[in-house]
Write a structure and sequence with these properties.
Layout (H helix, E strand, L loop, with lengths): L20 E5 L7 H24 L5 H31 E6 L2 E6 L7 E6 L3 E7 L2 H7 L1 E8 L2 E9 L1 H23 L1
Antiparallel strand pairs: 1-2, 2-3, 3-4, 5-6, 6-7
């Protein structure tokens, strides 16, 4: 099986020098579905309001027409700015699986960064869940990684069955390697 997204030299905050990256992934594209629907709806609203105010009713007062156009332009710009932040947020959320740990890195544009890590050797249980026909058809779901007192949920995991098997495989390989090195 050919694996993509496995650069060994990937650098990220919190990576140890002896850690080797196996693969990384972002959330499933369906995460952008509702922001896309929202921006299309607001764009349709602005287009309809522009058509009504300029085309059908033909506002005669120049200052009222300018205020209406500025309001509609600002509404359109705000809707697209919100969509753009959703796209940036999608690309700044990444999960990196190394030979020692699983890192969930949430970066934001301005306010804060969130980095959660769970060690593969400390991992007690891994669950994968897919609820509903949409998740099953599109192949995404939630991975839940449990260690002593830590639970790390990775929502909207694409190709969840493949990611689940690969994490289990990496965990077993590293466990057998550690046993071999201890002897």
């Amino acid at each position: 099986m050919k694996y993509t997204h496995a650069p060994a030299d990937i650098v990220f905050l919190g990576k140890d020098l002896d850690e080797r990256c196996h693969f990384y992934f972002r959330q499933h594209w369906i995460r952008l579905f509702w922001p896309l629907i929202r921006v299309i709806t607001w764009s349709a609203f602005v287009s309809m309001a522009l058509w009504l105010s300029v085309g059908i009713f033909g506002v005669q007062d120049a200052s009222l027409r300018h205020i209406t156009l500025i309001f509609l332009a600002m509404t359109w710009m705000l809707a697209h700015l919100l969509f753009l932040t959703s796209v940036f947020r999608h690309f700044l959320y990444i999960v990196v699986v190394t030979d020692q740990r699983v890192h969930r890195i949430k970066r934001t544009l301005v306010t804060h960064n969130d980095h959660q890590t769970i060690g593969l050797q400390m991992l007690q249980d891994i669950h994968k869940s897919q609820h509903g026909p949409v998740q099953n058809l599109l192949g995404f779901g939630t991975l839940t990684l449990e260690a002593q007192e830590t639970v790390l949920k990775i929502h909207f995991t694409p190709r969840i069955a493949e990611k689940y098997e690969r994490i289990l495989h990496i965990k077993e390989v590293e466990r057998s390697r550690n046993k071999h090195n201890a002897l």
